[in-house]
Amino acid sequence: MTVDGFFRLEATMKLPMPRGPITDQLLFELRAAPHPFTIKSAHSADSAIGDEDLQLALFACYELHYQSFDGVDDEWEWYLSLLALREKLEERLAQKLAPVPLRPHVSAASVPQELKQLVATADSGPPLSGFLHKTASLEQFREFVMHRSIYHLKEADPHTWGIPRLYGPAKAALVEIQADEYGGGRAERMHSELFRTTMCALELDDSYGAYLDQVPAVTLAISNVMSMFGLHRRYRGALLGHLAAFEMTSSLPNFKYSEGLRRLGGGARARRFYDEHVQADAVHEQIAVHDMCGSFADAHPNLAGDILYGADCALTLDRMFAEHVMNCWTKGVTSLREEYPEAGPR
Question: In terms of domain of life, where is this protein from (predicted)?
């Protein structure tokens, strides 16, 4: 685990356990040198968001662009067979992001106000942050942190893909936000490192991707949608809207997370990750809405609707995650995957 003044040198994770026929074959192929392959089935009857096999397959494809996996050849990152599979999976995810609406006709000038209206009227689902603030047990808080570790240990990375695709005020605004996310150039202040501190305080494994096998599809979907937006130029407007929704809805929940952790005995260092977001995201909200999204919409009025679409996606997935966690906890069961069968013999 992380110790004061020292950071993990390794960032890769082990290949996860398969969750169906797609990942059974994909993860088998990734263990070998890059070679042509086809997946027999890339479809299932499940909802794309709740499809364990699809979400894990997409996560594995995307992870090759981040820290990758132990023993996987870096040449896989841009190998055509892998990209062909990813394209099929992305198409299904994009088609099934219902009930997220597409917004083709939005005036550029109205984007900041429409973002505010969207956030103000969105159904946030069960009061997860309130439960963690007032009621959650230490084990439930630890479980919540295990979910969030899938994204927070690479926090900001998906949205950073947008920087080279922007110019002018929108680019400068995104860089300003991301600079804070990366600690202003100080490694110990990077938000990913602050989250490691929280994990260590809760006696959790802070290894990159340590809980990948335990988290369900909806947790993976949150990261996957960010990666899909970040890795495709055509989604650059949606990426900015997604980030704006994150910043606009972050301060109050993070205050409640910090106070909940305080109630459970967490000290100042353990809570610093959440406290940092209370302060930073209140500032980031204004930058994201006006300087980033507003400027981008002015420069690309034909993409104004994409900004709101991306914000819709962020809000919808956060609601679905809250529903999953709270439904499980209400029933007295874990929100993590309790069993994940090992792959059969090949």
Answer: Bacteria
**Residue 101 forms part of a structural domain:** no
Angle subtended at Cα 220 by Cα 217 and Cα 221, rounded to the nearest 5 degrees: 85
pLDDT tens sequence across 119-169: 999 887 889 999 999 999 999 999 999 999 999 999 999 999 999 999 999
In angstroms, the CA 335 to CA 76 distance is: 33
Q: Name the DSSP class of 280.
A: H
CB within 8 Å of 6: residues ≥ 6 apart: none
| 174 and 231, same domain (yes or no) | yes
The domain total for the chain is: 2
| Ramachandran bin of 294, using left for φ above 0, alpha for ψ from -120 to 50, beta for the remaining angles | alpha
Domain that holds residue 179: 108-330
Burial of 66 (0-12, 13-18, 19+ CB in 10 A): middle
What are 17-63's pLDDT values in tens digits? Answer: 999 999 999 999 999 999 999 987 655 556 789 999 999 999 999 99
Cβ neighbour number for residue 41 with a 10 Å cutoff: 10
- Rounded Cα–Cα distance for residues 100 and 94 (Å): 10
- Kindly report whether the peptide bond that precedes residue 99 is cis, defined as omega within 30 degrees of 0: yes
The mean-pLDDT minimum among 93-107, 147-161, 329-343 falls in: 93-107
Residue ranges of the alpha helices (H) in the chain? 21-30, 52-63, 80-95, 111-121, 128-134, 138-152, 157-160, 168-181, 191-201, 217-230, 236-248, 251-263, 268-286, 295-299, 304-330
Q: Would you state the pLDDT for residue 51?
A: 94
**174 & 294 share domain:** yes
